[in-house]
Amino acid sequence: MGRRVAVVLFNLGGPDGPGDVRPFLRNLFRDPAIIGLPGLLREPLAWLIARRRAPEAAKNYALMGGGSPLLAATEKQARALETALKKQQPADEFRCFIAMRYWTPFVADAVQAVRDWGADETVLLPLYPQFSTTTTGSSLAEWRRRGGGAAKTVCCYPLHAGFIAAHAALIRETWEKAGRPANARLLFSAHGLPEKVIRGGDPYQWQVEETAKAIAALLPELADHEICYQSRVGPLKWIGPATDESIIRAARAGKHIILSPVAFVSEHIETLVELDMEYAGLAREHGAPGYHRAAALGPPPGLPGGAAPPRRRGAFRPRHRRAAGRGAPVPGALGPLPAPGRGGGRMILAGLYDWLRGLHILAVMFWMAGLLYLPRLFVYHCGAAPGGELDETLKLQERRLLRLIMNPAMVAAWVFGLLLVWANAQRAGGWEIFLSAAWAVKFAGVVAMTWLHHVFALRRKAFEAGRNDWPARRYRILNEVPAALAVVIVLVAAVALR
Q1: What is the number of other CB atoms lying within 10 angstroms of the CB of residue 466?
Q2: CATH number, residue 223
Q3: Cα separation, 43 vs 31, whole angstroms
Q4: Residue 470 domain flag
Q5: Are 137 and 101 in contact (CB under 8 A)?
Q6: In sequence order, what are the residues at sequence separation of 6 or more whose Cβ sits closer than 8 angstroms to the Cβ of residue 18?
Q7: Mind listing the pLDDT tens digit for each residue in 97-107?
Q8: What is the value of pTM for the model shown?
Q9: Which of 363, 364, 375 lies closest to 401 in space, CA to CA?
Q10: CA 271, 77, 327 angle in degrees (round to 5)?
């Protein structure tokens, strides 16, 4: 009796229609692997980002019929992989299950479906060729969180021979259809990541570079090639060069652009809209003599899972801890993978940094709230009769606000802020990042808040002793200072967040 082997294909997911765009985006940005803040801060932030970006994203999905083609493409890959596996191992029964991270069918749906089918063995196959904590790592973590059973795991396949050969064949085919231009420049475009993710030990950029190097070795006719990164969003500094910048440089140099999406195995919004429409228009705008994009891999033989059925012999275990996931990786679906240059300590530091940042923001919020509210109490106190009931009530409120909320919040803001300074220096490998104007403004803002806190503490003591000599008008003016500081700090954080 043969085994029942379940192969779970992980992918990003995408909205089925216009009404799904906003909840899809919210699911994306509430993932702690995407926004590393504590849940208390991450959830409302995800809601705000999704609300702001949904209209523009819906316009892009409308160009593809209103929804994402990713699920349909993944289903084709699943059926093709089943056929290939059954042909190679007819004694066993194979079934592929789809697990989308941010839309239906969700990972939880796949966990239940595999359980209901009664699989004897499960293989987890993320459709992300290069490992990243934000893609493969997030999907495997969700599988465990949803109660997925023991499984063999394909962490990545950046150097798999079939994967490399399939890409090279598609690129050569594209170049030949373009008329074999002698002045061609091959751009390997991959999805970008914030630099801080890479500094934290994520091997994604290194694996992309290894993939491009291996493909280029099979294409001697395209000696002019470059790696670039697309889909940058938000204020953080991302790895580069950016794909749009590389296209502009190539166009101005008179190069015929051949572009290959080396980090995608399916066509979706970032290939069909960003690459085929936006970047094609950019190339024309800057005078490129030609722009041709190689197709994403699609079903086998490009899909690595179709090249090697699951078996135990010769299993490869990646040396990068977070890349390994749980369970033994599938042999034959991985090429040799050296460990990245940064170690586990940097990844621990990256996680610590996210928690420190969240706690620091929370402390500053409480501190700022106190700085805004205390001078309003002082305004009311100016009109209270000394020794009266209102006077005593306001003294009690002012004392409690300062001692129980503002003082602890100020201390916490400074402690977590100084730890953030240290963590930033460790992640950046030096203290030079603090020489920027943005950091100077942030530090000046916190110092100003501390000075204001001290002034308010002295004024509270004056009210307590019945010696207040300031008019209500002065407290009203002071009440505007924290609001102005808050605006400055928020603007600096939005423009130059680190």
Answers
A1: 10
A2: 3.40.50.1400
A3: 9
A4: yes
A5: no
A6: 58, 61, 62, 66, 67
A7: 999 999 999 99
A8: 0.67
A9: 375
A10: 105
